Amino acid sequence: MSAHVEPPQRSFASDNAAGAHPAVLDAVVAANEGHALAYGSDPWTAGVANAFSAMFDADVTTLLTFSGTGANVLALGAALGRGEAVVCTRWSHITADETGAPERVLGTKLIELPSIDGKITVDALASLDHLRGVQHHAQPGVLSLTQVTELGTVYTPDEIADLVEAAHSRGMRVHLDGARLANAAAALGGVDALRAMTVGAGVDVVTFGGTKNGGLGAEAVIILDPALAGAAPYLRKQFNQLASKMRFISAQFLALLKDDLWLELATRSNRMASRLYEATSDIPGVTHEGPPEANSLFPVLPAEAIEPLREWCFFWPWDLERNQVRWMTAWDTTEDDVNRFAAGVAATVGD
Ligand SMILES: Cc1ncc(COP(=O)(O)O)c(C=O)c1O
Prior knowledge:
CATH superfamily of the largest domain: Type I PLP-dependent aspartate aminotransferase-like (Major domain)
Largest sheet: 7 strands, mixed
Oligomer: single chain
Strand order of the largest sheet: 1-7-6-5-4-2-3
Bound molecules: pyridoxal-5'-phosphate
Structural class: alpha/beta
Mean pLDDT: 97
CATH topology of the largest domain: Aspartate Aminotransferase, domain 2
Number of helices: 14
């Protein structure tokens, strides 16, 4: 690494590496006044339920949780029937990065389908049809999609609608892991896109990530199909996701949803990823698969540059057999961070 290049103030490790937005922290401090009833019987939580119904333009049921893994397990638990399996890709966070939580907590099987750029296809779903009605096979019951996908791609609302139709026609429900749903909405044009890819597409249950989007620990399960809402509050408690002082999670979401701050922050994060792509795509030795669709890039670098660069400014390796790494932006990434990082990449790769 050329010693003279100053590293950026913020890393390109993850949107989880960023702190919380000041408006979120202010909202938590403001919610710290006096007493409020516990377990969600407070005005902040009532306000969040209304705010999410307005945002999705539907009468949704909102259940707040501590973590994204907990939100996914709760959402899947609400959607699964007995003897049923969850269908996902091998990249899906629920199968690759949740330590087997859905299997352990729900006692379900996860069936991994092949995908293209992290996206499931209708044909792949149809390839499971031979399992149906055979007592030796867990029955595909819930299709789980991730939006933004784990490979940084974004399903269009039409792609989701087609998958939902294929799933529903097979008697399945559809779960959308929306840890980065804000980034997907920003990429696709905002609130209308959010509605189109969820309610409009016929998805049954969505998780909406607040933590990666400027929260300090706030996730939401949004149940769109009222038939799935009945048992969900009990499941949340059983799955250790019921906060007693829920007002502090709710206050975070109220801050993020107010004046569409969530969208502004996700838009900024996506824009910085595009900027990083532009700033590095002409550097000889850096190979991008294409421009980012949301807030992550998966470039291939010269093998010998990876470790010096990671020591200088942290990011995660992705597929080291291919010398591929992941660069991810966050709500607080600045142009200066991008410029400095690109300068460091140019200096290291060019060494
Ligand atoms: C696609 C996806 N889903 C869910 C999560 C939620 O994870 P956590 O339990 O760490 O909040 C993450 C976090 O990285 C994620 O990337």
